[in-house]
């Protein structure tokens, strides 16, 4: 199975027994982030291209899930958590804690490898940003976003997400 190690080869290019053998031979780690926080980060990275967060969100909603950018496409459609048996799911904002656990489980030295994360500050900052940005949206946009990300909100525990309220 030399072609397994070719980075250009996508999983969909293999037959079912090959996929099962391949997935069974790797430790599968999925990094996830609250979909609303992903939207905020994408908006902030592209500041100036849209006049307001509300208009950016409307563009996202108008695009729909099939034509969505990878930056804001629902995670469930990108990583297929119902089909791929992930060994670990690491949530943004808890990197230090979760990566430390993962490294210990794999037998790697934690302190010498793990960079310094400021998870508490990241969570506080995104909570504050979320409050500000969410207040810019109409009630209809809020409901549409919750619907847009409904499968992510169901598949993963994004407790405290503004979209789950």
UniProtKB/TrEMBL annotation:
Enzyme Commission number(s) of this protein: 2.8.2.-
GO molecular function, one term: sulfotransferase activity
Primary localization: Golgi
Subcellular location(s) per record: Golgi apparatus membrane
Keyword terms: Carbohydrate metabolism, Glycoprotein, Golgi apparatus, Membrane, Signal-anchor, Transferase, Transmembrane, Transmembrane helix
InterPro entries on file: Carb_sulfotrans_8-10, Sulfotransferase
GO cellular component: Golgi membrane
Keyword Ubl conjugation: no
Superkingdom of the source species: Eukaryota
GO terms of biological process kind: carbohydrate biosynthetic process; dermatan sulfate proteoglycan metabolic process
Pfam hit, one: Sulfotransfer_2
TM annotation in the entry: none
Membrane-protein topology: Single-pass type II membrane protein
Family: Belongs to the sulfotransferase 2 family.
Protein name: Carbohydrate sulfotransferase
Organism: Smithornis capensis
């Amino acid at each position: 199975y030399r072609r397994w190690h070719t980075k250009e080869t996508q999983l969909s290019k293999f037959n079912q027994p090959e996929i099962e053998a391949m997935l069974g031979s790797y430790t599968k780690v999925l990094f996830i982030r609250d979909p609303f926080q992903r939207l905020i980060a994408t908006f902030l990275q592209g500041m100036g291209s849209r006049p307001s967060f509300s208009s950016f969100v409307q563009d996202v909603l108008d695009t729909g899930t099939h034509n969505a950018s990878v930056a804001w496409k629902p995670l469930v459609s990108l990583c297929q958590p119902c089909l791929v048996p992930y060994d670990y799911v690491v949530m943004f904002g808890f990197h230090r804690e979760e990566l430390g656990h993962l490294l210990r489980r794999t037998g790697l030295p934690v302190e010498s490898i793990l960079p310094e994360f400021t998870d508490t500050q990241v969570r506080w900052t995104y909570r504050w940003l979320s409050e500000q940005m969410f207040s810019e949206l109409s009630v209809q946009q809020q409901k549409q976003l919750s619907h847009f990300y409904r499968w992510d909100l169901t598949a993963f525990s994004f407790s405290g997400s503004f979209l789950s309220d």
